[in-house]
Structure formats: structure tokens, C-alpha cells
């Protein structure tokens, strides 16, 4: 199946997708081994160079914060995906629309200063951050660096500085093999990112509203407890 570009949003319910393929694969991006087994898992597939991924993840972060503020516990497992170079919002109209949507959620998308980059190393850094329970913060920082600040997220010096900011010990080579394997898996599977796969089997694709994501988290909790 061919890989698809980012998408605005769609929903696959548990009745339609009883088991998402990613849910059967061990995520390379794991939280610390002592993370509570009672934490509800959400699988997230994204690409740092994808504007829809940036917006969808920004909204998911807000939903997750609200869920956790009421006592909910989450374990977020990240899975990497890479678009074919150059795909994504390409016309001025599409970029303007994306920028307006993102601004409503506090995300600044500066397409004119964005630096095209191979996101392999950025994904590898998320994997490294997961070993220190910092993957969620690392993904958010990488999106901001790429889309807001115009930094090269394929450059080791940039990534090392971002890792330091988030509190992740830098290692230039760690997790390269599993990141490559997971990217190969994603290419064979063929997805439209971002993907949010919840514990009850529901799969959201694209940038859903915060309230919808929060509802999905609560629905999954009711099924899994």
C-alpha cells in the first residue's frame, strides 16, 4: 500500500477495526520499565515534517492533559512515519488554511521558513527520549523547532541542543536500528498520519478537536477498566 500524506480527520470505530496493526507491534518508543501497568496506552503515529501531525498532536496533548488532570493515567507509545520528501501542504491556499487552524490551538506554522529535513534522526531522538520518560515533550519540541523556529531537525547539532532542553541525555547512535525497522513497517502498512489508536480499538486519523480526543480517551477507559 502506498503511503499517504497527512489528513484532516477520520474515525475508524472498534466495530470496523477490531485490531489496528500497530497495536500488535512492540513500539520502539517505550516509557520507563517501571511505568505503571495500569496506565492506559495510546499508540501515536506521526511525522515531524507533517503539518497535520503537528496540529493533531498539539490537540492530543491538550486532551491528554485534561484527562490526566482528572486522575487518568496514560502511556503514549510513538511510532515513526516519513512522508515522501516534499509532500504536505504545497499550495499557498492550503498553507494559509493550515496556519489559521493551527493558530487557533496556539501552534505557529511558519511554512516560509521551514527547513526541509530527513526526519529519521528526529524519530530516533523521540525513541531515545522515551527511555527517559520524555517522549511526549520531545515530540512537541521537535514540532515547534521544525514548524515555528525554522530549525533543521535532521542536523545532529540541532537535535543535541533540543535534547538538552528537554532533559534527554544525547546519544548519536542509540535506537537507530529499531527506528529504521519501524519506518520500514510503516511504509509496508501505509497510513495517513497522524494516527491515534486508543485502547478500546478506536482509531482516529488526522487533527481531531480536543473534545473529541478527550471523549475517546474516556470511552477507552470505560472499556478497559
Please identify the structural class as seen in this structure. alpha+beta
* CATH third-tier fold name: Glutaredoxin
Mean pLDDT: 85
CATH class: Alpha Beta
Q: SSE order, as H and E?
A: EEHEHHHHHEEH
Biggest sheet descriptor: 5 strands, mixed
CATH architecture type: 3-Layer(aba) Sandwich
Number of domains: 1
For CATH, the homologous superfamily is named as Glutaredoxin
- Unreliable stretches (pLDDT < 50, length at least 5) are 1-5, 12-20, 28-36
Shape: globular
Distance between the first and last residues' Cα? 35 Å
What kind of oligomer do you see?
Answer: single chain
What is the rounded Rg? 16 Å
Description:
The chain is of the alpha+beta class and 225 residues long. The chain has a single domain (9-24, 38-224), classed as Glutaredoxin. The protein has helices spanning 51-69, 92-104, 120-130, 135-148, 156-166, 176-189, 210-224; strands at 9-12, 40-46, 74-80, 195-197, 203-206. It has a five-stranded mixed sheet. The longest helix is centred in the N-terminal third of the chain and has 19 residues, at 51-69. The chain is globular and about 45 Å long. 43% of the residues are buried. The model is unreliable at 1-5, 12-20 and 28-36 (pLDDT under 50).
Amino acid at each position: 500500500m502506498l503511503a499517504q500524506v497527512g489528513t484532516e480527520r477520520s474515525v475508524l470505530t472498534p466495530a470496523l477495526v477490531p485490531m489496528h496493526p500497530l497495536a500488535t507491534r512492540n513500539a520502539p518508543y517505550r516509557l520507563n520499565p517501571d511505568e505503571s501497568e495500569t496506565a492506559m496506552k495510546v499508540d501515536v503515529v506521526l511525522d515531524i515534517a507533517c503539518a497535520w501531525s503537528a496540529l493533531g498532536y498539539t490537540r492530543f496533548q491538550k486532551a491528554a492533559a485534561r484527562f490526566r488532570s482528572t486522575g487518568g493515567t496514560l502511556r503514549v507509545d510513538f511510532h515513526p512515519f516519513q512522508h515522501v520528501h516534499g509532500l504536505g501542504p504545497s499550495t499557498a491556499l492550503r498553507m494559509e488554511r493550515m496556519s489559521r487552524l493551527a493558530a487557533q490551538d496556539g501552534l505557529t506554522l511558519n511554512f516560509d521558513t521551514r527547513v526541509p529535513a530527513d526526519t529519521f534522526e528526529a524519530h530516533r531522538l523521540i525513541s531515545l527520549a522515551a527511555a527517559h520518560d520524555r517522549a511526549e515533550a520531545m515530540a512537541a519540541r521537535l514540532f515547534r523547532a521544525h514548524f515555528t523556529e525554522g530549525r533543521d531537525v535532521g542536523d545532529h547539532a540541532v537535535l543535541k541542543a533540543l535534547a538538552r532542553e528537554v532533559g534527554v541525555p544525547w546519544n548519536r547512535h542509540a535506537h537507530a536500528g529499531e527506528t529504521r525497522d519501524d519506518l520500514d513497517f510503516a511504509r509496508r502498512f501505509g497510513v495517513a498520519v497522524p494516527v491515534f489508536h486508543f485502547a478500546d480499538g478506536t482509531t482516529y486519523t488526522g487533527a481531531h478537536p480536543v473534545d473529541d480526543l478527550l471523549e475517546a480517551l474516556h470511552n477507552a477507559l470505560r472499556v478497559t477498566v
